[in-house]
Amino acid sequence: MNKFTLTKPAGARSVDEITGSRRLRRMRKADWSRRLVQENRLTVDDLIWPIFLTGGTNVREPIDAMPDVFRLSVDQAVREAERAAKLGIPAIATFPNIEAGRKDETGSHILDPDNLINAATRAIKAAVPQIGIITDVALDPFTSHGHDGILRDGIIVNDETVEQVAAAAVLQAAAGADIIAPSDMMDGRIGAIRDALDANGFQDVAIMSYATKFASAFYGPYREAIGTQGLLKGDKKTYYIDHANSDEAVREAEQDLAEGADMLMVKPGLPYLDIIRRLKDEFAMPTFAYQVSGEYTMIKAAAANGWIDGEKVMMESLLAFKRAGCDGILTYFAPRVAEILKG
């Protein structure tokens, strides 16, 4: 083997000469100094917990594709809302698994004042009035075809869908929802919902727009959770945003704000940090991200196999949202994160 002798360059500069005495490691040398200069922090106030609802009583049904996540009957959802409030989580978001017999082509069951979403909202508000409740008026849990809108001759019809989701938003507000978060991506839905809420005396109910919901492959486990897996005919690319597009996402957000949205959401989360940053810089509005089921499941699966430290990756992924400009994150990790943050 040939030996190589390293020759120090003649007149080689010292590290202080190279850096101009600017040593960036100085403030990393100790835990106290790292904490002192930390730029972003995750707190329990940043957390929104999405939960899944199902019928029956005392039901806590595991979701195979989402370890440690359950479908909850209303009574169990109340218990979990009480737990969330004790942990300091500001708000929960509810998503229903509607029984097959109540699904139809138009998702008409969403207009039942006593449907699962509204029943859960009333029960949670009665037991835990201090926690915020966020509800979605998309039709996909209610349709027999799994789309977010009304299907006519193979086409998702925009205006008829908007009329229905606006009516559903009023019913959800009447049940006690604090924030309506429409995820269907129909044109004009934000303005129609705002008009309907205001006309019915719900001026104080806010709208969190899924302003930039992308046609993503990360939603798979969620569709199992709400019972739409296998139902979907075609895809959702005619109304969700192409995941290649960034300028289009900005235009969607701008339109929703003009129609009356109070806050913006980006969905999915980690693959779209650039969108979060653009929206925050462009509009300076409350901006949220949804760490969706596929993101959650990847972390859980890798941790279960011993490939990563699940809790450290969980916390790092959520801090990434804060660094990108998020004011809050919808995450299935919320209860565990709250426990860690409380020590």
From TrEMBL:
Protein family (similarity comment): Belongs to the ALAD family.
Single GO molecular function: porphobilinogen synthase activity
Protein name per its UniProtKB record: Delta-aminolevulinic acid dehydratase
CDD domains on file: ALAD_PBGS_aspartate_rich
Keyword hit for Lyase: yes
A Pfam cross-reference name: ALAD
Keywords for the protein's UniProt record, in alphabetical order: Heme biosynthesis, Lyase, Porphyrin biosynthesis
The protein's annotated pathway: Porphyrin-containing compound metabolism; protoporphyrin-IX biosynthesis; coproporphyrinogen-III from 5-aminolevulinate: step 1/4
Source organism of this protein record: Mesorhizobium retamae
